Amino acid sequence: MVGHLAGSLTEPTAIRPVRAATLVGLYVRPEHRGARAGARLVEAFLEWAPPTRPMSTRSGSTSGRGSFLRP
Q: Using CA atoms, how far apart are residues 36 and 42, in angstroms rounded to an integer?
């Protein structure tokens, strides 16, 4: 396993009248970084999302170095 990606699709609401594909989280193991593993995961997510015809995509990022990752 090189890493993982979590995403969601949401239907239109009164506040946001379009379907949205949201990339919730992305992690690539250190030994696989720099080899486009993250890019390939995002590409796969975007290929998965179109059948629902999302009109917007959203994502955020973090360095992943927060204390919540340490035991």
A: 10
